[in-house]
Amino acid sequence: MVDEYDGLFEDLEPFWELSGEEIRRRAAQVGELPSIDLVRIRDGVADVINVNPGFHDSEVSARARGFRSMTGKFVHLLPDMDFPINAKAEGRVLIPWEHRTYPNLTVQDSSLGVEAMLGGPFKPDWGDDGNIWEAWRRTCHPQSSARRLFSSLRPSFTTQAKNHLASSHISPGADFAFVKTTSSIEDYCNTPHAHYTQGHFFSDWRSIPVLYPVFSPAKARGFMDIRIPSHYYYGSTKRYTYGWDSVNLELKEVDPMEVPWEEKIDKIFWRGATTGGGSHPPGFAPQYQRHRFLRMASDTSNTTTRVVTFPDPPSSSAQFTSAAVPIGKLNEEIMDCAFVKSVSAASYPGGQAALERDHRFGDSVPLGRHWSFKYLVDLDGMSYSGRFMSFLASDSVPVKSTVYDEFFTDWIQPCVVHFIPLSSSYSEMYNIYAYFSGPTQSTLIAANSSLAVLPADSELRRAVEGDKRLRRIARAGKRWKGTVGRTLDMEAYVYRLCLEWARLWADDRDSMNFSL
Questions:
Q1: Which residues contact 69 (CB under 8 A, 6 or more apart)?
Q2: Which family does it belong to (predicted)?
Q3: Handedness of CA 219, 222, 224, 226 (dihedral sign)
Q4: pTM above the 0.90 mark?
Q5: Are β-strands 335-341 and 265-273 bridged in parallel, bridged antiparallel, or unpaired?
């Protein structure tokens, strides 16, 4: 991993078009906008400054203080400069394709101030004059589908289509398709209908349409924020940190609530709040990522089925059987997923009553309760998930679905190496389980298998090789976290970021170029 910072250079590349003077001016100006804090380094000391005290934000300074902490070991070596830190989880910078391709169409000299650059006063909330999707689709090529067509307003993810003329023979179908990586590569420019499934396109927070430097913990495709490590990963808290002893205030190598692999519950576990997006425009909350997953995992009906494909017998690597299994039975056997808190329930059609009708709700659990389960689902909320590093550090397996790239994205390997990637449709979730853990009782019954009469712990029913593969992923993820995802690695990343930002900040940047 030495000197492999391609993502960092990719984030900073657009700023090489600006002079050092222009970057310094833009950094100061964007710090005047709501929910942007400045980490200001002067004479080897870093301070957190908020120059917009008139706007109250409950999240103010948390991420900025985290970034300042990451510079603590080397800040005395750095020149004077400013880092505008995003106080929000969501991405902030969206620049139209035309403005990136033809910069002369826009004002490039910011000397007249931020309002001149933005075309007027900046309103933090969208109100009635736009939304993130309208701003985002302008980042696409003019010939792309997102620019040329308005996609249907009809939700297309609430019902399961049924082919009444289909053969009675069950084939694996789309549910047996596994993704190689996360959905951060999904191209919404050419599949605009898919944006209805992701809450970040409905955020209440207005984006910034000009190339201003904003440092954020994650960014979705199309955004131009500069990635930094999350303060949730760097700090130690009982909600986000594996092994944190909140009584003795020390970090332990093994979490006190960790469970040996053989004793872990062979189920898919998730707990979280109903976060996931805003309400601009309103009415689309049922299609947000967390709501869709919970509705799938909470379904108790026997009318909806999922096609589950499993090795038959479980020891086989070449012979597979498919069966249409009632989703209610599957969920009862393998799912333990629930909301624990309602956030902005009024934005969900029907309010709190409808939320509780459509989704399972349960009690909050400590982070350590997750380690009792083999499969830990990791879903985006308002932005990236702050628990991913703790899931990797555990002896369980993260199953991650995300549309975000983070500072470590180029360093970690999905596709059953360090974690299991999950598509944004979640349709393969039941087959992921069947591949590693074998068929459930309801699956065997639906397949009319003779194995259904055997005890669940029978050697003939158990997916021994699949369980070994699953455990290898858990071990590899834990090893990655302990060698590449340490706080030390985050500090090294931030140090390199600071050095490159210092080059951009300086008027004599070319004198710092490396040459042989």
A1: 231, 234, 235
A2: Belongs to the glycosyltransferase 90 family.
A3: positive
A4: yes
A5: parallel
